[in-house]
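Mods, move this if it's the wrong board.
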Amino acid sequence: MFKILATHVAVDVEDLQATMRYLDDVVGLKELREVNRPNVRVVWYPGLELAQAKPDSAPGIVKHVAWEVDDILSAIRDLKAQGVSFEGDEPRQIETAVVSTHQRVRYVFLTTPVGLRGELVQVDPPPASA
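Not the wrong board. Structure tokens:
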């Protein structure tokens, strides 16, 4: 059986830089990790995943709810046995080179019974050579 370690909601914001400054300077939240690729920047804070809203999207809308788990393969297996459907058979992985902490981040999306898009995430320590 898998264990849920943390949760977050994903939200697109109108101005990612201004939002990050607000969260850092005013609220006092510290960034957990960041992914920076051409045309894609995602920043995680405790309980929150932020991205710059695209011109054709509405900022402030929850895009998905995520559960960080200790064993993503076990979680997929257990949830499939309960009838949960996933977007793909295997978790995908973000290249460690584009993760600010060099951690291995694996994820898979699912459809929740309550109509929310869900995500399972497993974050592993960075490789010894990082």
